[in-house]
Amino acid sequence: MKRLQWLDVSKGLAILFVVYFHFFRTVFEHYQLPPADWSGLVAAMMSILRGGWWQVSGLGFHAVGAFIILSGWTLMQSTMGRAESGHFAWGAWYGARFVRLYPMYWVAHIVLVSPFVARLEPVDGRIILSLLGLRFIDISMNFMYLNAAWWYFSMLIQFYLIFPLLFWGARKFGAWPFFLGACALGFFVRYLMLDVYPQHGFWILGGFAICRLPEFALGMALGMWHVGSTRTQRAQTAASSTELAGPPSPFGTHISSQRVAAVEGAARREAGPATSRAERFFLRGPGLIAGLILYPLALKLYDNGIAYVFCDFGTGACCFLAIAGIAGLISRVAGLAKIVGLVGVYSYGLYLIHQPYVIWLGLRIRPQPISVFLFIFLITAAVLSAWGIFLEKTTNALVNNLLPVRKTARS
Predict the structure, then answer these.
(1) Is 144 part of any domain?
(2) What does the alpha-carbon distance between residue 209 and residue 151 come to, in Å, rounded to a whole number?
(3) CA angle, corner 157, sides to 339 and 354, nearest 5?
(4) Are 26 and 366 in contact (CB under 8 A)?
(5) What are the tens digits of pLDDT across the range 114-126?
(6) Backbone angles phi, psi at 334, to 5 degrees
(7) What is the per-residue pLDDT across 128-143, written as a single tens digit (0 to 9) for each?
(8) Based on the structure, what is the number of domains in the chain?
(9) SS3 sequence, 227-289?
(10) What range does the domain containing 370 cover?
(11) Distance CA 216, CA 226 (A)
């Protein structure tokens, strides 16, 4: 199934927002905004912009929820394409997932001994569980060990473990019944672990993947919806083209076929690439507007324990809508879309290696004026993206050379 550039752009934006957040939190850890100045128009505008920047920067961790949604979408869409081709086996799927995830994850452990990284904890016996990805064992000691961002890996392997069951449920019951059932299960487990039998917050964060199932299931349902709406759009276009072509020519079917081809070609030139209902919603404004309107309501879910059951889902979904909407705008600028999309294609490598670097740098440059900080971040993001892409491409090439029969799958 063809890759969707705007999904790659969305993944690029999401991972860059996460990198930005970790850098922001390090540099401005002890910073306090100056009091708002309303003495003049310019001063008031600067105070509003500064306050808005501060609030938006503090939401960067919501991009993790958006990334879970994007992961569910891309994994569902790619697996549907393979399953419908008729050549699909779950054993091979698991093998492809293993060689996609673990080699680069192990390389990221090696990177921790390189210069210019923050090593906040010693390398000890916990490294074994970390290399295995089993960071949820003795969760308070291991979940954030060495690189706090790696908690996501232990959640991801749980989703991959149960994905065949999720895939079967989605195909059997349909996208939205499956999504509602997954939400019911995820929210019920969160309620039990937050309010009835309170557990360590790491379990809710992702140590027990079912707690983040609503976001992942939303991505899967959206992926199915997109496939269905795209096929409907193509069927309607084909039917419309045949209707416009008119009845068969009295001179034979050859001229009629030419008329069909001419009509289809004219329609493609006029309308451009086929766009599904899902893409029209997410990329052309409605999704972005909905995300911005609903975001303040989602932030209200932090107010009490019961509401927090739905908080990660609400904030992640709103962040996803905003990111997808911005991706739609970026996709109109070919050069920028290509760059951000490339970061999205190799977002896994950037995710694995970025945090020790931005902490190391942030601790050495703080504090900084906002404008200088933003300039440094752009350079840092470019360097880390290039480094992550190089490591991931090199690792994948090495793995493919060692295992030439089984290509790594990227989603």
Answers:
(1) yes
(2) 11
(3) 40
(4) yes
(5) 777 878 888 899 9
(6) -55, -45
(7) 999 999 999 999 999 9
(8) 1
(9) HHHHHHHHHHHHHHHHHHHCCCCCCCHHHHHHHHHHHHHHHHHHHCCCCCHHHHHHHCCHHHH
(10) 41-239+275-402
(11) 15
